[in-house]
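Work Package 3 (structural annotation) set out to generate three-dimensional models for the target panel prioritized at the project kickoff. During this period the team completed the workflow that converts sequence records into discrete structure tokens, so that structures can be stored uniformly alongside our sequence database. As a representative example, we reproduce one entry of 226 residues exactly as it appears in the project archive.
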Amino acid sequence: MFTTLTRKLIMCLTGLFLCFFLIIHFLGNLQLFLPAAEAHTKFNAYSHFLSGNILIKIVSYILYSCLILHAVDALFITLKNKKAAKPYRHDRRKRASKWYSRNMGLLGTLILIFLVIHFKNFWYVYKFGSLPLDADGHKDLYILVVTTFKEGWYVLLYVLSMAALCYHLIHGVHSAARTLGLFHPKYVRWVKISGILYAVIISVGFAMMPLYIYFIQQDNLYIVTR
């Protein structure tokens, strides 16, 4: 049986690894902002490198494990908190906490639903689908990304999910700092500011990618498909 402290520690460590992964994923996907022809070549080469690198494969297994552990642990903690909170339903704790900190379970569920759709549209198709090859013989993931980001419903889903991710990260970084004992009163302000900056930069940056392709690069699709 895991204690509450153990679960919080697992939640913290898996969350921090996922935060680190988001940075790497974000930096790699910045290539989508390049001119279409250049982005086409470089993004596919980057994707091919990741799929064929043994070290990256090991990291990917750690990533999948962290995602599962984080989600399962969050479920246990949320259910336990709800059960413990029943006798205090009429208290006034809402005034002392942000709405997103009280609804991490909901935000996490929305993000999980998005991840299932996201993995199905990209990871599954790239691994098991029949993608065309580009001029260098690489699977043409860029075409898949551009085609998917041309769909208005998916762009809307993506942007809304990034908004949920932003609030999730703000609270998550704050909680991780407290769990690890890094929340010293002397540095509390800077921890909060750093967490908010990280959450906003990552979330807004990711949200801009489908918006950029949908509204700006959409008309240039012929450049990469002809």
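Residues 222-226 have pLDDT under 50 and may be disordered.
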